[in-house]
Amino acid sequence: MTVRELEDGRVLVHCFAGCTVEEILSGAGLTFDALFPDKPQERAQGLRRPFPAADVLAALADDAMHVAVFVANLGRPNSGIEPEDYVRMLQAAGRIVEARRIAIG
Q1: 102 near 51, Cβ under 8 Å?
Q2: What is the pTM of this model?
């Protein structure tokens, strides 16, 4: 998970395991108000990249490995793919696409 505070006081959160912002805040005992400053600054600058590239690449590497193992198992004789492995592969593929979107900006 990545948490980042912007110059204007807003807080960005992202879970590479797929948790929603609501789940993250609930787990921390917080509400959405905790992500925003009391008084927004008039001239806050935008954020170019919300997450460090190294964090995105680390998450991508993990998900790519899960996809590779899944594909390798497809080639084994009589290999029945377990439903939880299939779901994990779909999650990994989705996070790879999301990481690409984040990296592009």
Answers
A1: yes
A2: 0.38
Provide the token pair at 38.
Answer: 């009391």
Looking at the chain, list the stretches that DSSP marks H as alpha helix, in order from N- to C-terminal side.
Answer: 21-28, 53-74, 83-104
Mean model confidence pLDDT for the chain: 75
Q: How far apart are CA 71 and CA 43, in angstroms?
A: 49
Q: Tokens for 12, please give them.
A: 């960005």
Q: The dihedral of CA 72, 19, 3, 97: what is its sign? A: positive
Rounded Cα distance, 4 and 94, in Å: 22
Structure tokens at 87: 């779901």
Q: Which residue has the tokens 């793919």?
A: 81
C-alpha span between 7 and 11 (Å, rounded): 9
Taking only the tens place, the pLDDT of each residue in 58-74 is 878 888 887 777 777 77
